[in-house]
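Work Package 4 report. The design task specified in the project plan requires that, given a folded chain encoded as structure tokens, an amino acid be chosen for each position. We show below one input record used in the internal validation round.
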């Protein structure tokens, strides 16, 4: 009820509308009494099919628009109240091979969104970030970290407290395109092998529905400049592989014991574990319900917008990462996959 009231009557600008998270956000936004939704993407084919699916909803307007082109972004953002920025290059290996493209989209594209939001005097801008932005070891993670810093710094450039800029940081989305679950599925479908980069690898995971719901909620939780970290389940990738083989191999006519797991070694820039906060952030992070709130290092005129929250929340004592968090066992992973219709 509260969420519906907050979104009612607003116009929303959604970048990356054809991505896994973007499309789910679009579906959730349509549940509210919005004045309009402007969705943009560079994927012409997916945009066409999304537009066909949304044809019965006159509130939804979808356009080809590249966040790299400032003029396009500013023009499409006119009359907008809330911006949800989900457009990004996200695959670690591809960004390592094409670092310039990652910079252009993930960093310069984010700055274009920020500038357009300031010029168009929107109310709120929420950037969807990644656990790979914490102590980054890859081009993708570094570009996401830089985008986070741009969003936090933008809070010092606001007029009369608006727009409110904030980032939401979460981990791997189960079943998103190019992620490990559909990869394992395709490998199991041909009898293997299922490839693991390193059996010690752990990851934060959540469903796309969880991710989109948290973005929607956090949009009006944000006070400006902070990074909102979503609490997530942790699993071992090797355990995930064993569960998926046991569950899916019979569906493709294979005995689970016949499907090999092959270790292929880590990819460039890939980490053994993921982090959602780091050592430096601990001193300005507090636990708030479903989230950790990382207060901005930059403050406007010494103002602390989070003083009351910090009193009510709990300070954290150590970084939040997947190597020190309790991982799900195989039964819990199986239940998670079944709840989200992944097996």
């Amino acid at each position: 009820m509260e969420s519906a009231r907050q979104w009612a009557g607003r116009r929303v600008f959604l970048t990356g509308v054809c991505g896994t998270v973007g499309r789910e956000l679009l579906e959730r936004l349509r549940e509210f009494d919005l004045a309009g939704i402007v969705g943009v993407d560079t994927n012409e084919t997916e945009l066409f099919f999304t537009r066909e699916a949304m044809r019965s909803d006159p509130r939804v307007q979808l356009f080809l628009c590249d966040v790299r082109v400032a003029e396009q972004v500013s023009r499409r953002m006119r009359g907008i109240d809330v911006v949800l920025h989900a457009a990004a290059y996200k695959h670690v290996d591809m960004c390592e091979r094409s670092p310039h493209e990652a910079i252009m989209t993930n960093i310069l594209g984010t700055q274009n969104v920020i500038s357009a939001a300031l010029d168009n005097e929107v109310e709120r801008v929420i950037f969807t970030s990644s656990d790979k932005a914490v102590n980054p070891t890859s081009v993708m993670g570094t570009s996401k970290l830089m985008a986070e810093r741009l969003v936090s710094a933008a809070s010092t450039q606001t007029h009369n407290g608006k727009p409110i800029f904030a980032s939401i940081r979460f981990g791997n989305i189960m079943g998103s395109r190019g992620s490990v679950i559909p990869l394992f599925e395709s490998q199991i479908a041909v009898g293997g092998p299922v490839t693991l980069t390193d059996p010690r690898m752990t990851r934060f995971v959540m469903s796309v529905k969880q991710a989109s719901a948290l973005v929607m909620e956090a949009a009006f939780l944000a006070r400006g400049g902070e990074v909102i970290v979503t609490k997530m389940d942790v699993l071992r990738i090797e355990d995930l592989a064993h569960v998926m083989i046991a569950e899916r191999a019979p569906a493709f006519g294979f005995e689970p014991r016949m499907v090999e797991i092959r270790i292929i070694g880590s990819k460039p820039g890939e980490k053994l574990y993921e982090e959602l906060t780091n050592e430096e952030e601990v001193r300005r992070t507090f636990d708030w319900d479903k989230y950790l709130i990382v207060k901005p290092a930059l403050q406007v005129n010494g103002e602390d917008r989070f003083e009351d929250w910090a009193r009510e929340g709990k300070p954290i004592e150590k970084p939040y990462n997947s190597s020190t968090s309790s991982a799900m066992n195989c039964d819990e992973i199986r239940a998670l996959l079944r709840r989200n219709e992944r097996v």
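The chain has 13 helices and 15 strands. Validation will be extended to a larger panel in the next phase.
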